[in-house]
Amino acid sequence: MDSCQLLCEFQIEPHVPKNFIWPKEYLEDAHEELQAPIVDLDGYLKGNNEATKNASKLINEACLNHGFFQVINHGIDMNLIAKAYDEMDTIFKLPLDRKMSVYKTHGSMWGYSGAHAHRFSSKLPWKETFSFPYYVNNALKPVVTNYFKSTLGDDFEQAGVTFEKYCKAMKELGMMLTELLAISLGVKDPLHFRELFEEGCSIMRCNNYPCCKQPSLVLGTGPHCDPTSITLLHQDQVGGLQVFVDNKWHTVRPLPNALVVNIGDTFMALSNGRYKSCLHRAVVNKHKERRSLAFFLCPKDDKVSPGVESMALNDIFGVETIVINVLNVMWMKEMMKIFNTVEACRGGCVSRFDSRSLAHVPHAPTARVNGRWARREKSVLDKSSHVAVAD
């Protein structure tokens, strides 16, 4: 039976199918809650300098440690978030054959995926996803709305309108967070990173984690680090997001009206390695399905960024600039292939690229550290783990 069909028919399956079962070493329980700061953005949004300073300090502390924090009073309409969940539910409740009509094809980042069965045959994640792009084009055409109409049909136009508004709001919040991140890094110009992201094509992903009769055998999303820049996640109140810090898993407690923000590999490179892109995963339970909305802020694919001009960074790394050609389209595709099997890091928070694997990839990210250009290298745990961006 097809893995997508198995997932969709989970309620009538007496046991977890073999290709969804994960090795025991990946299934260690989390017993502690992650100490992730709650950053109140109200003062920053009102232009209060002291509040901005306090917010950037909290962000700095979190990103130096593990790269995760939560934001409240972020300005996103909670009714809009609720509508996005309603529209997402409608999509995932469609008959399997309808969902398969927009199935994510090999090499594509967009469309429906059931357990990532189009990519893997074992250690499958217990989830289904629907992904689509968001960017602002010169013609000001509604990119998301058009995508929904062209893939799901005219009856999903309103769903497209809702997610167009949702993505626009997330993009605006993401841009503001780049300013706070710049301030937190001690960059002279708070708008330092803004140009990188203004014209970028971001990724929106809806995640649905069904109940599982044997949750101790599966993972909703395997251990991974996000290869993108900044992730803005809204998770429902069921919970399931976990972060690997100090060689153990920690839960991220869902907070009403809060968004979880985490640093991805690309922004870690932009910070010259100072900020952490941390290993995380999602677990499921037997009583209630879990849902989340993940927005990945991405830079324009052909942008070249001057490095962080910060006295603090210069003192630490002994460099004046780094130059990174981020997320070139060809490199992005190659990176996604490489991230199909990535090792979790026991000794630290960061997943790293294999320099041998990246040797043939044009414009792979590099950083000038101590006068040398060095590619980031991948660190080995025990066995490879499938990476599925978004939680």
TrEMBL record:
The chemistry this enzyme catalyses reads: gibberellin A12 + 2 2-oxoglutarate + 3 O2 + H(+) = gibberellin A9 + 2 succinate + 3 CO2 + 2 H2O
Its pathway, per UniProt, is: Plant hormone biosynthesis; gibberellin biosynthesis; Hormone biosynthesis
* Keywords, comma-separated and alphabetical: Iron, Metal-binding, Oxidoreductase
Which Pfam families has this protein been placed in? 2OG-FeII_Oxy (PF03171), DIOX_N (PF14226)
Q: Which GO terms describe its molecular function?
A: gibberellin 20-oxidase activity; metal ion binding
PROSITE patterns from the entry? FE2OG_OXY
An example of a Gene Ontology BP annotation on this entry? gibberellin biosynthetic process
Q: What does this protein need as cofactor? A: L-ascorbate
Cite the InterPro entries for this sequence: DIOX_N, IPNS-like_FE2OG_OXY, IPNS-like_sf, Iron_ascorbate_oxido_reductase, Oxoglu/Fe-dep_dioxygenase_dom
**Segments forming domain Fe2OG dioxygenase:** 197-299
Q: Tell me the PANTHER family matching this sequence.
A: 2-OXOGLUTARATE (2OG) AND FE(II)-DEPENDENT OXYGENASE SUPERFAMILY PROTEIN-RELATED (PTHR47990)
Its family remark reads: Belongs to the iron/ascorbate-dependent oxidoreductase family. GA20OX subfamily.
UniProt protein name: Fe2OG dioxygenase domain-containing protein
Q: Which organism is it from?
A: Trifolium subterraneum
Question: Which lineage ranks, top first, belong to the organism behind this chain?
Answer: Eukaryota, Viridiplantae, Streptophyta, Embryophyta, Tracheophyta
